[in-house]
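Could you please review the protein record set out just below?
***
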Amino acid sequence: MKKIFKYMIVAIAAFTAHNALAQNLSSAYFLDGFAQGHELNPAKDYDRQAYFGFPLANINVAARGNLALKDVIFKNPDSNGKKVVTYMHPSISYEQAMKGIGKTNKILSDERLEIVSVGFHAFKGYNNITLGIRTNAGANIPWEFFDMTKRLSNQNYQINDLGATAMAYAELALGHSHQINEAWRIGGKAKILVGGAYAKMKMENLNLELQDPNQWRAMAKATIEAGAKGFTWGEPQIKEYNNRPGEYYEEIDFDKIDIKNPGPNGGGIAFDLGVEWDLEKQFGIEGLKASASILDLGFIKWKNVSIAENNGEEFVFNGFNDIQVKDGPGEKFETQGDNLGDRLIDMYRLQAKEGTVSKVTGLGATLNLAAEYALPSYRHLKFGFLSTTRIQGQYSWNEERFAVSVSPAKMFEAAINVGVGTLGTNIGWIINFHPRGFNLFIGSDHCISKLTKQGVPLRSNFDICMGINYPIGKSRIAK
């Protein structure tokens, strides 16, 4: 956890879990032959009698954000562009460094792995059962944080809402949908959740007031919650007060944090709800349908949550004036990040509280609103609009997606779309190949653009979703 600060600086979402920011493949929303359509809207039907998939039925790795690697990593002008440096490097001007930094900067990531997935028609409707693992992560970094770390000088600063949150859990979901009349179809899904690990870091109300060229008067409030079986903060480190020689205080030593014998650490429930409305059958508007869904309405109660916090009292802080951000021996990028991370940790002076507590965390909710229009002269060509809103406090976001999908044959369908919203503009696509007995799909809502030499995307919005399923029965859609 000590290196979280460094990962913030380089704008890499290097978290392994987060507060349930799960994102399904929106590009597949308007495909009838997509077996995992119930993940987007539990009211959706499936064009085969049944399907099953295991393991790796659905792999989804995604990152979201309005802060990209290219916003904090630059080509070094002193090396003719052959090397890269952080935004903190003196060769990068303040104006250039802050050009891509917004008032609020979000980094979100999401990994979903379905171990087993089964769908079948029975009980007067369509049913599905899935068992999977979800790990998600996110960070919220205010503009003032980058302003301070770029200047690296003793000035007056006020920083609020710097934080990160993380969650990993297993999910068993049972879903059912059915037609209630010609025009309306409804569906729902109940989920049993088993918590694996949870973490939340919130740094707020940081005030730094210049006292003299080498010292700040500082006040800060910070809290870290860590919920994992076998988690321990380890032995604290002892430090001397800067302005009180001979007096000492305890502080968490992040290098000594450990997890022994990890295992399940909590449980909860969640629900998905969905509806589809056929306006052609209701009002005779040829080819027009509408739908809506709300996903992940639920919570997890975590056990064994350890808490570290500071007391928020005023103290003297030496600042960043002696941090070197330049090329040279011992001043590699990783060293620079570690130095800055160490200094930030010193500034917050976190101390572990005795014992553990229980915490209840909401999953956050995703709202989908959609409309689609199939050409009356060629019903296999459709135009769609999908609005997706993530409702999760400072990690919320919204996106509108305009799609065109085509299914020229029973065994093949594809879609391409453009998304615009809180986190920028993106192009998505999907190819779904599903002959009898076999289904392979691959797609992305946010195409990966340029990569670094290490294979890291320069933009923060990217994802890939793929899977293999095994359909049973013929397609029920006429071609």
Notes: The two ends are 55 Å apart (CA to CA).
